[in-house]
Amino acid sequence: MKKIFLLLTGLYICLAGFAQQRSSYTQYILNNYILNPALTGIENYTDVKMSARDQWVGLNGAPRTAYLTVHGPIGKKDYRTTATSFEVPGENPRGSSYWESYNAPEPHHGIGMSIINDRTGNFNRFSADVSYAYHLGLSARTSLAMGFAGGISSIGLNTNGKAFFGSDPSDPSVGGAVATNLRKIKPDLAAGLWLYSADYFVGLSGQQIIPQKLAFVDDATFKTNGKLIPHVFLTAGYRFLLDEDFNLLPSVMVKYINGAFKNNYQAEFNAKLQYRDVIWIGASYRQFDGYAAMLGFNVANTFNVGYAYDYTKTDLHTFTKGTHELMIGFLINNRYGDTCPRNVW
Questions:
Q1: Over the Cα atoms of the chain, what is R_g?
Q2: Do 255 and 58 touch, CB atoms closer than 8 A?
Q3: Per the confidence metrics, is the pTM higher than 0.70?
Q4: What is the CATH number of the domain that holds 13?
Q5: pLDDT tens digits for 217-245?
Q6: 76 is in which domain, residue-wise?
Q7: CA torsion through residues 293, 306, 113, 216, sign
């Protein structure tokens, strides 16, 4: 009985209270590329990130998300001791010299790809996209990137799973279907802008920008209003140099999703305190949802690790043990020896 109650509670939250159709990420600030294709090729190296998110631990059928992203620059000619890199031995790459010597990179291109798998109960969504961006210098210290991503999404419903209470011929989502694994393939398109410098960024992006109907059977007898709706993200952040060793990076993201949240908007506030290029801690607040604590570190100029723990303040907090999210990043072809991202933060 308890399992059924938890399942119904989870389905109510997912379907009635939160109409967000794309995955949620707590550590998006470490990989804004997952939300905005304009970041494609922003760094001096090929950026590879893998992440796994286990949401609402302890709740049957709770969302589980995993992704892989890869992107890098093409035609970037400024691999030197300015702009986004620093190679003076023993000197802090995030110190005052970084701000004083920063120059916007030369115009260049970027290409990338992402693979995302998101499962919630008997629903599963698998997406594969490729991306392109062009980075243009607006001034000596400011750049603007424009990018887009395109691919496919495979959206499936397993009617034979443990959490499925049986097939109802009058259910408009499945109609009279007898197959145990219903699936639809849909085109996917995203686009974005990213304005950035040494000490700030502002981004605007849209995902799932092609409105499409979604039904698991094509039967005129069964009408459904199911559809894929656009997701819009506005992000901004500023970096404060506290002293030669510490940086404080507050940021905010506002989502707009028609039919989700109150008034269709949700805001997220983040703060990240970083010690040199070695270790950082952070905190996050997500409107209508809860709080998160974050921790990360960099290992030389090879890879970095980030972890986040989310606590929900919704009614689900009684039944779950929180949300865990782990991310690992690799810096490939790092010809300049960067120890962590310079423009992604």
A1: 21
A2: no
A3: yes
A4: 2.40.160.40
A5: 655 545 556 788 899 999 999 999 999 89
A6: 2-332
A7: negative
